[in-house]
Design goal:
- By secondary structure, this protein is an alpha+beta fold.
- The chain has helices at residues 18-25, 31-43, 45-65, 79-85, 96-121, 133-142, 154-165, 212-216; strands at 149-150, 169-171, 178-186, 193-200, 203-211, 233-239, 242-248, 259-261.
- The strands form 2 sheets. The chain has a 6-stranded antiparallel sheet with strand order 1-3-4-5-7-6. A two-stranded antiparallel ribbon has the order 2-8.
- A hairpin with a 2-residue loop joins strand 6 and strand 7 (242-248).
- The longest helix has 26 residues, at 96-121.
- Mean pLDDT is 75; it is low at 1-11, 70-76 and 119-127.
Length: 266
Amino acid sequence: MSNTLPPNSGASFPPFDADSVDRYLDGAMADSERVAFEAEIDRSESLRDEVALQKQLDSSLRAGFGAPPVVPVAGILTKEEARAFQPKPRRAGWPREYKMFGALAALLAIAVSIQAYFWMTGPGTGVEERPSLASVYYKLVNHKFRPSEECTTREKFAKWMATRYGVALAPKEDRPDVELVGWSYSGAISNYTGLLLARVDGKPVVVAIDTVARQNDWGFPCRRQPDDENGVNFFSTEIDGIALYEITPLDQPRIIDNLAVFKAPG
């Protein structure tokens, strides 16, 4: 005969814990314990939240792995009597540890999928792709040759170089055919590449500037790439550990051959 207790019968049970939630959701509680547990659910908001969370987790696991087998209870005995006389069956449902493991495995699978997506859709080589010097030149020309910072004097030129690269390079002499427009920036050689914008005989000329050390890590020569437009020439030099590349429509360099370490007038 079943000993079902009403919620307020006064019967006492051990404090309900996480295992009690699992047994309740798996239908593994005796009727009396189930009634007391449901009464506690009505009283405790935190217990209601725990039960709701476990239901969601169980639903997710069943969707991914299939529902656990249901153990039938045979005979004419009540459920409590059947549990008392039959060998204790393996608990239906997923143990709490397996649920947590399953959730972590699902998160890991998502992370692996995201990584695989970026690996498959990223560049085909391990070398970081950077814009060619010719493409940088034409982009500046097509955007009206506007600098980020002005550069109108040798002193400003030297200060910019000293601040950015530690070497105060500047033009050795002022040339009437050379107009210093200003400075811009690029990722052509490294993330610290500077660009000097100038006009020589009224034509746009760009000098890409970076350290020799970063230039050596570039991985490809500073020349025109196969998909670049024609019409510009390349000239290069190194001064005190600074690499300079002049990209110009002219047939000879007119800026990098006029650079040296700046010495302020005494």
